[in-house]
Amino acid sequence: MFDSQVATAAQMRALVAHLGRVDGSDHSQVERIEQITALEELKAAAAAAQARLSVAYADTTAANHAATGAANRDQGTAVGAEIALARRESPNRGSRHLGLARALVRELPHTMRLLSSGAVSEWRATILCRETAALSVDDRREVDRQLADALAGMSDRAVEHAARGLAAQLDAASVARRARRAVRERRVTIRPAPDTMTYVTALLPVAQGVAVYAALDQHARGITADGDERGHGQLMADTLVEQVTGQSTADAVPIEVQLVMPADTLAGAGDEPAEIPGHGPIAADAARSLLAASAQSEASMWFRRVYTSPEAQELVALDSRRRLFPPSLKRFLMLRDKRCRMPWCDALIRNYDHVQPAWHGGATEAANGQGLCVACNQAKEALGWSAEVLDDGLGRPSPHRVRWR
After folding, report:
1. Can you give the three-state secondary structure of the chain, one letter per residue?
2. Model pLDDT for residues 63-94, shown as the tens digit of each residue
3. Residue 265's pLDDT is what?
4. ∠ at Cα 361 (359, 364), nearest 5°?
5. What is the pLDDT of residue 260?
6. pLDDT band at 307 (very low <50, low <70, confident <90, very high)
7. What is the pLDDT of residue 401?
8. Cβ-based neighbours of 105, under 8 Å, separated by 6 or more
9. What is the mean pLDDT of residues 29-52?
10. pLDDT for residue 4 is more than 80
11. Which residue has the higher pLDDT, 28 or 310?
12. How far is CA 338 from CA 23, 62, 347, in A?
C-alpha cells in the first residue's frame, strides 16, 4: 500500500479510510477473528510509530530552539501539549505520552520491538514503563531484557507483578523512595458521574485506605443490624458524608447553588436543561428537585443569579480595565467556560488567561478572557503558540470561538 518505507500522512489516512469501510460482511467467522487480531497488532504498531515520531519531534524542536537561543522553561510543556493536540487529547496526557515514548525509544528496546511488531499492547508497555520508572537506566534495561521472552504472553496483572518484583530485586532502595514519594502524593479528587451524581476519590497509603473502608463497612453492618432499610453501599456512602462534614444526616448539606438556567425552567414553565459549574448539564426536573430537596432539608442554601442574554441565551459579558481579572470576572469565566478551554482538555480551571495577551494590547474583559488549567496556560506561553478570538459571524468578538495555533 505504501510507496516507500517512509509512509506519508496521506498514505496513512488512506489506510484509515480503508479500515473505515471494513464491516466484515463478506468474511467468514475465521477471517473475522483473524482480522480482529491483525487490527489489534496494527494498533500496537501504530502506537510504536507514534512514540518514535513524538521523540523525533521533541528532539528536533529542542535543537531548533537551542540553535536560535530561543529556548525557554515552558518549551517542554509546550511540546507535550502540541503532541496532545495532534493526538486529540489533553495536554496532561500529551506529556505522559511523550514520557512513555522517550522511555520506550531510549531505555526499553525489547518492549519497543514487541510493540512495533504488534506482539504487546500499548497499555502493557505502559505498565512496564510505569513499574520501572524509579530505576536507573541500566536496571530498567535489565528488567526489559529479562521479561522480553515472556512479555507477549503475559496479562496486564502479570506484567505489573513481574516488573514490580524485578524492580525490587534490582534496586530496593529506589522502590522504597518511590513509595515514600507516592505517600506525599496522597489526595482527594472529584469528578462528575452520570445522573446528577459525582465521584469523590481518595488516593491514600494502603493501610489508611483499608482502615477507612473497614470502618465504613463495620459501621454500615451495625446500622443494618439495628433495622435500617438502606442498602449496605448506601449506608457506607451516607456515613462517609456525615463523618467528614459533621452533619446529622447526609442530606443536610449547606450549599451555594450556582445553577445556570433560564427563569422559565426555575419556575417550572420550561424544560431547558440547567448547568452546574464543575459538573455539567442536568435535566430541568433534576435541577428543580435539587432545589426542592435542599429547601426542605436542614441545610442552609444560597442562590446566585446568573444572567443570560435574551436573544442568544449566552452569559452576558463583563469587562474590566484591570491587568488582572477581578474576582467577579473570574467567577463569570468559570461559570461560562466550565472546564479548561484548550481543545480536548477537560481539566478544572485554575488560571484566568487573556486570549490576546495583555502585554500585546489584549483587554481584560470576558470576550478576551478564558479559563485554563495550569498546564495549558503554561503551554500557551511557550514560544510559537498563539490564540485569537474569532468573530460570531456578525462582526462581533465571540468568547465561544477561539483559534489555537
Report:
1. CCCCCCCCHHHHHHHHHHHHCCCCCCCCHHHHHHHHHHHHHHHHHHHHHHHHHHHHHHHHHHHHHHHHCCCCCCHHHHHHHHHHHHCCCCHHHHHHHHHHHHHHHHCCHHHHHHHHCCCCCHHHHHHHHHHCCCCCHHHHHHHHHHHCCCHHHCCHHHHHHHHHHHHHHHCHHHHHHHHHHHHHCCEEEEEEECCCEEEEEEECCHHHHHHHHHHHHHHHHHHHHCCCCCCHHHHHHHHHHHHHHCCCCCCCCCEEECCECCHHHHHCCCCCCEEECCCEEECHHHHHHHHHHHHHCCCCEEECCCCECCCCCCECCCEECCCCCCHHHHHHHHHHHCCCCCCCCCCCCCEEEECCCHHHCCCEEHHHEEEECHHHHHHHCCCCCCEEEEECCCCCEEEEEEEEC
2. 887 777 655 555 667 788 889 888 988 887 88
3. 62
4. 90
5. 64
6. very low
7. 63
8. 51, 52, 55, 112
9. 94
10. no
11. 28
12. 39, 34, 9
Retrieve residue 352's grid coordinates.
Answer: 484566568
